[in-house]
Design goal:
The complex is a heterodimer of chains A (127) and B (394). Chain A has 5 helices and 3 strands; from the N terminus they run H-E-E-E-H-H-H-H. Chain A is an alpha+beta fold and 127 residues long. In chain A, a hairpin with a 2-residue loop joins strand 2 and strand 3. Chain B is globular. Classes of the chains: A alpha+beta (127), B alpha/beta (394).
C-alpha cells in the first residue's frame, strides 16, 4: 500500500499548470516556510472567467498534487464557481488524501480564495 | 534499487538469515526446559551472549537480551532513575538530539519529578565533554548520551564523557544503536556503564537487541514474569533471533575495517558531489561521522517531495522534514544543531551500506542534483531567494 493514491502521485509526478503568469490579475500566497508549505496561485481572469492559472509550491507531495489538481478544477471556470471551490472537492478529485495531509488541500483552497480577493482588490470587480 | 537508508534498517546478511532459519527449524526448544532439546537452545543462547560480550569487551553476565534498542534504552534509563530516586538523586543529564526512545523516557521521568538537563550539541553536532562535566550536579543519577546520532551520524566523544562520569561517580548510559557493528565500541575503554544496541542496524533481524549493564548496576524490570535474563527481562528468549544477532555482529565486526575504508571513501565522494549543489549544507561534522552517513539541507525545497522523486528513480532515502515525521515540526536533531525550520524541512539523509558502488554514488549525486533543481524550479521560496526578496540562509 503506497502512501498516496495513484491520482495524487500522478499529479505530483506531472503537475499541471506549473509556473508563473507574468500579467496575472490575481495572486494569492498562503502558508509559510516554517511549517514547510507555501502555495502561490496566479490567476488571469477575463470576463469573469479564469482564463489561465498557474502555481508555484514549496511543499510535500500532497501539497504539490493539491495545487495541481486545484488549478485543473478552476481553469476555464467562471469566478462565481471558483469561489465555491472547497478543499474537500480538491481532496476528492485526488481520490482522497491521508488524514494528516488534508491541510494540503486546505492550503490549495485558501491560495485560490486569496488570489480571488487580490483580483477583487486590484480590479474593483466584485466576485 | 539503491538502498540508502541503512540508518533506518539494514538488509539481513545471508549468514544471519541462515542462523535464524536453521534455528527456527532445529533450535526451537525453550531454554528454560531441562530436557536436552531445551538445553541445546540454552547453549545456543549462552554462546550468543558470550560472543556479543566479547565483541564489546563485556562479561557475558553483563549482557541482557531485549526486543531491541528502544527497550534497552527504556530499561537502562528507568533503572538508573529508580536507583537515583532511592538515593534522593533526581537529576539526569542528556543531549538535545537523542533518539526519542531516550527523550520520551526522560519526559516521562520529568513528569514524575526528575530534572533533566539537555546538553547543547552545537553546530557540528558534537557534545563538549567539559559541558557534560559542568552539567553534572551532586544529585545527578545518570548521564545518557548517544554514541552516534541516527540522523546526522556524528560520533560523540564517548570515552571522554565516560571518564567525566567515572570521575564524578555518575552512571553513564550510551545509546549505541547506530554505532555497534559499524565503529569500534569497547565498554571498558569507553567507560560505559550501560549500553543499548539493536540487531537490525547491523544486518541482523528486527525485534532483537541487547542491553549491556556493568556488573553492580542494578536493573529494574520493564517486563515481569519468569526468571529469564537473570530475572531482569521476563519472557521466553527469542533464541533464533538472538543467535542471528550474534552471527550478524560477528560478521560486521570482522569486516569492519574494510567496510569503513570503502564506505568512508564513498561517503566523502557523495558529500563532495552534493556540495556542488548551490545553497546547501552538510549537517554534522564531516570527520567525526559514521562512515555511512550523509545528511544535507537544501534551501528552497521540502524533503518529502524530494524523497518521493528519488524513490521514483529507485533511491531509498529519508528526510527530517515535518511531512515525513507526521508532526508539524521538522527533525529535533536538525533544530538542535541550529538549523532553522525553513531549511530543516529540506533535509535529506542518505545512509549508505557496505556494498555501495562508485557508480551508485554518482547516480545518487546526479539524481539529487536534478530533483533539487526541478523542485526549486517551481518553489515560490526559491523564486523569492533568487529575486533577492529574501536572504539565503545557506
Amino acid at each position: 500500500m503506497a502512501l498516496y493514491s495513484e491520482k495524487v502521485m500522478e499529479h505530483f509526478r506531472n503537475p499541471r499548470n506549473v509556473g508563473v503568469i507574468e500579467d496575472a490579475n490575481g495572486i494569492g500566497e498562503v502558508g509559510n516556510a516554517k511549517c514547510g508549505d507555501i502555495m502561490k496561485m496566479y490567476l488571469k481572469i477575463e470576463n469573469g472567467i479564469v482564463e489561465d492559472v498557474k502555481f508555484e509550491t514549496f511543499g510535500c507531495g500532497s501539497a504539490i498534487a493539491s495545487s495541481s489538481m486545484a488549478t485543473e478544477l478552476i481553469k476555464g471556470q467562471p469566478v462565481s464557481e471558483v469561489k465555491k471551490l472547497t478543499n474537500k472537492a480538491v481532496a476528492e478529485a485526488l481520490d482522497g488524501l491521508p488524514d494528516y495531509k488534508m491541510h494540503c488541500s486546505v492550503l490549495a483552497e485558501e491560495a485560490i480564495q486569496s488570489a480571488l480577493e487580490d483580483y477583487q482588490k486590484r480590479t474593483g470587480n466584485q466576485i | 534499487m539503491i538502498y540508502a537508508d541503512n540508518a533506518a534498517t539494514t538488509r539481513m546478511s545471508e549468514a544471519a538469515i541462515n542462523t535464524m532459519t536453521e534455528l527456527m527449524k532445529e533450535g526451537w526448544g525453550n531454554p528454560s526446559s531441562l530436557y536436552v532439546h531445551g538445553q541445546k537452545a540454552k547453549e545456543i543462547l549462552e554462546k550468543a551472549r558470550e560472543e556479543i560480550a566479547e565483541i564489546i569487551s563485556a562479561a557475558p553476565r553483563e549482557i541482557y537480551f531485549t526486543s531491541g534498542g528502544s527497550e534497552a534504552d527504556n530499561q537502562a534509563i528507568l533503572s538508573a532513575a529508580a536507583l537515583g530516586r532511592k538515593n534522593g538523586k533526581m537529576h539526569i543529564v542528556s543531549s538535545a538530539f537523542e533518539h526519542h526512545a531516550v527523550l520520551h523516557t526522560l519526559s516521562k521521568l520529568e513528569k514524575e519529578g526528575f530534572e533533566i538537563t539537555l546538553l547543547n550539541v552545537h553546530e557540528d553536532g558534537l557534545i563538549v565533554p567539559e559541558e557534560a562535566a559542568e552539567a553534572i550536579r551532586d544529585d545527578t543519577c545518570l548521564v545518557t548520551v548517544m554514541y552516534a546520532n541516527n540522523e546526522i551520524g556524528t560520533i560523540q566523544p564517548i570515552r571522554k564523557i565516560g571518564a567525566v562520569c567515572r570521575e564524578k561517580g555518575v552512571l553513564f548510559h550510551v545509546d549505541a544503536v547506530q554505532a555497534v557493528g559499524h565503529i569500534p565500541v569497547n565498554v571498558a575503554e569507553d567507560n560505559i556503564d550501560m549500553l543499548s544496541a539493536s540487531a537490525h542496524k547491523f544486518h541482523g533481524p528486527k525485534g532483537v537487541g541487547f542491553l549491556y549493564a556493568k556488573k553492580g548496576v542494578r536493573l529494574s524490570n520493564l517486563i515481569e514474569g519468569g526468571a529469564q535474563e537473570r530475572g531482569k527481562r521476563a519472557g521466553t528468549e527469542n533464541v533464533p533471533g538472538i543467535a542471528s544477532m550474534a552471527t550478524a555482529l560477528k560478521e560486521a565486526v570482522s569486516k569492519m575495517q574494510e567496510n569503513t575504508e570503502h564506505q568512508t571513501v564513498m561517503r566523502d565522494r557523495l558529500i563532495a558531489g552534493l556540495q556542488r549543489i548551490p545553497h546547501c549544507a552538510l549537517n554534522g561534522d564531516a570527520v567525526h561521522r559514521l562512515p555511512g552517513n550523509v545528511n544535507f539541507c537544501f534551501e528552497g525545497i521540502e524533503g518529502e517531495s524530494l524523497l518521493l522523486l528519488l524513490d521514483d528513480r529507485g533511491i531509498c532515502a529519508s528526510s527530517g522534514s515535518a511531512c515525513t515525521s507526521g508532526s508539524l515540526d521538522p527533525s529535533h536533531v536538525l533544530l538542535a544543531i541550529g538549523r532553522v525550520h525553513d531549511v530543516a524541512h529540506g533535509s535529506l539523509r542518505l545512509s549508505i551500506g557496505e556494498e555501495i558502488s562508485e557508480k551508485e554514488v554518482d547516480y545518487m549525486i546526479q539524481s539529487v542534483t536534478e530533483v533539487v533543481g526541478y523542485l526549486r524550479g517551481f518553489s515560490p521560496i526559491w523564486r523569492d531567494l533568487m529575486a533577492g526578496k529574501k536572504e539565503f540562509i545557506l
